[in-house]
Amino acid sequence: MVFLRELLVYIPYYLECFLLVWMMLLPYKRKAHYRRHILILLLAGILWQVLISLMIYIDTSAYEVIVAIAKFVLCFLPLYFFYYVYHIKFLKTFYIVVIATLLQRWSSVFADVVVSFTPYADNFWVGRVAAWLSFALLVVVVWFFYIRIINRDDSVEIDGITMALFYVLVLLFELGQTFIRIGIDERIWRLILSILELVFCIFMLSMSVRIAERNRKLAERMVSDALLAKERQQFESLKQNMEAIKSQAHDLKYVMRAMQAHGVQGEAAGKLQKIVHAYESNFNTGSAALDIILSDAQKNFTNKGIRFECITGECDMSFIDNFDLYSLLGNAFDNAAEYLSTVDGEKRYVSFSVSDRNEGFVFIEVSNYYEGTENVYIGMKSSKADKAMHGYGTKNMRRVTEKYGGELNVSAAHGVFYVTAVIPRPLK
């Protein structure tokens, strides 16, 4: 009978944690033969709990607490082989298993607190049923308010040092409260310890979420900064290339004049004329940086069979750093070119306009044909295959706009996709 009770404790412990870990690993890529591995892990874990339960027959009166803690830790050991079933790191699996263990422990403690207020506080079967009902309630709550949220973004990570501190705190607390319970017989003090343990579990869970969110934002910021630095280098390279090309085009003009003066005409002269025209800038916006960006965009769009319509007037944009302007427009043009590569040729067009509004704001708009019907927003998911390094372009555009106190709006309406930036001109 005692052995049966042990099984009714440890096997549900494992099954409950198994379910929680499985739910938290849903977004991750699975290895081949996934169902077979999951079934083997489930059956191996149940068999392992039978061996753990047999430890009750070992005479450990002098080390009863230590053996009890060891049994509790060992009973979850098979769960760590989840890392083999998924393409994730062992430390990530370890963290998720600890979170699952805490959640399971939370439901058990909650059941103990509830049962302690009833006349059946010492009834094993009432305690077991209460624990199972408490876990069922926990699964519903945790799914909607925790697991469903973290599963939206599989880039959430916890650094190694934070993990180590997390494990040490949990271990010290569990050891401390276990030893304290040995010398306490009064039910009221046991109830207080259970409530404290429940509060501790909630605190550790909330802290882990906050730390994971902080690390995710830090990682995003580092990638975004790296991409901005790369864009600075690209602009410098583009600027140097444009200046070299303009210089060569200028020299070619004199060569053509000399050829024409000597009566040289024909196909060679015509090709030379086209080359000079192609490399001469058609833009004169008053901003050298903007002229370079638009000339490069026009060349790239033409090579891809995309019409480029540009409406510019006299607009002072000198207060915007050249690199920031390149990041803002370059990402907008790249996103437009990527989408238009998927539509028919007659629909391939990009329109760009920049103007002053009430002489207090600079209004910049990039628009292109768009067939989508879903809502679009800042930070939208990328359709590119390399999702880890994409999706930051729109975020960088927003960062640049907000740097100058402006606002970036991304929207779609009536078959047109709009990227609009409204930037206030600094007061003189």
What are the key terms here?
elongated, 2 domains, alpha+beta, Heat Shock Protein 90, 428 residues
Report what the structure shows:
With 428 residues, the protein is of the alpha+beta class. The chain has 2 domains: 2-225, no CATH class; 284-424, 2-Layer Sandwich (Heat Shock Protein 90), CATH 3.30.565. It has helices spanning 2-24, 34-53, 64-74, 82-85, 90-115, 124-150, 160-182, 187-261, 267-279, 288-303, 322-340, 392-403; strands spanning 307-312, 349-357, 361-369, 407-413, 416-424. The chain has a 5-stranded mixed β-sheet. A hairpin with a 3-residue loop joins strand 2 (349-357) and strand 3. Helix 1 (2-24) packs antiparallel against helix 2 (34-53), helix 1 (2-24) crosses helix 5 (90-115) and helix 10 (288-303) packs parallel to helix 11 (322-340). The longest helix is centred in the middle third of the chain and has 75 residues, at 187-261. Mean pLDDT is 76; it is low at 377-390.
- Order of secondary-structure elements: HHHHHHHHHHEHEEHEE
Helix content: 55-70%
How widely separated are the two ends?
87 Å
Query: Roughly what is the average pLDDT, rounded to an integer?
Result: 76
Main beta sheet = 5 strands, mixed
What gyration radius follows from the Cα positions, in whole Å?
A: 33 Å
Using the alpha-carbon principal axes, give the shape. Answer: elongated
Strand content: 5-15%
- Number of extended strands: 5
Number of domains: 2
Q: Biggest sheet, strands in spatial order?
A: 1-2-3-5-4
Number of helices: 12
Low-confidence stretches: 377-390
Structural class: alpha+beta
